Amino acid sequence: MSKVSMQAPRAVVMIRPHHFTPNPVTAADNTFQVRDEKRKPDDLVALAYQEATRMADGLAEAGITVHLYEDESAATPDSVFPNNWFSTHSGGHVAIYPMYSENRRQERRTDIIEMLKAEYRVQDVIDYSGLEKDGVFLEGTGAMVLDHIARVAYVVRSNRANEVALERFCTHFNFEPMIFDAVDRSGKAIYHTNVLMCVGTDFALLGAQSIPDPWRRREVVARLEETGRQIVELSIEQIEDFAGNAIELEGTDGRIVAISGRAHAALQAEQISAIEQSARLLPFDVSTIELAGGSVRCMLAGIHLSRRRAQPAQTPFTAQASRTAKHY
């Protein structure tokens, strides 16, 4: 549709869970989590596995390189959301983040970092995870929505986004911090910024109604408008349906916006039209995984790095050992 954008990565990391369950440890501050009292735990495990598999297949068919890793551990119920513990950046930079919940800290994997070094041009890895010992947290591109073009980090204040860690990240990675308060319909702080907004190349999805301070709300909107993006305003109800939890990617035939089926169904025709002026919407059913309080954006860690070699042809993969990757 348009020229290649540094905002839209061509490759992602995904984790396929073998023991999925909504994390009881994170339920206190993640109001998007839902308990399923009707289905058995084993049923949820099987459905989550299938949803991650179908999504990986669908992205690969659209021309996205998918590095799919297995997680057979029952100790990491949120591992399906890898964007919280690491991020990648143009110029060969990687960040590793401090996680708020103790059982989420086990999600960090050296094999993924080593794959990035082997497959992509990585100049340095900055590890902030030691800040956990000081009670300082910053949960990656869940806590931050990054404008890679204008170099702005949009961040909602929460237990999972500490301003000290944010300042360090922005200094190291050359981003302008823009931090603000945002709340759900009950007045509780929204736990992750990426359920509230999505920044694409030519558009931005934003639940501005969730920003209670009208002055700060206008500042956030103005900062996005300065970049020339069309703002697609999301209602509180659409935010609750994960309409803000989307990500723009670069596929074979142009840019796509990966989004959940629930979120896509919540969008109005005019909103879809505005988005599809620059990128095609590609919805996936991840309704079981959404019980854990995250959606499609949370499931994808974008790779904003240059490959070391030509991308291999995308072919179906076969099962491998636990915790090893399958590369589409």
From TrEMBL:
Pfam families per UniProt: DDAH_eukar
Q: Which InterPro entries match?
A: Amdntrnsf_FN0238
Q: Which PANTHER family does the protein's record reference?
A: AMIDINOTRANSFERASE (PTHR43224)
Annotated protein name in UniProt: Amidinotransferase
Taxonomic lineage per UniProt?
A: Bacteria, Pseudomonadati, Pseudomonadota, Alphaproteobacteria, Hyphomicrobiales
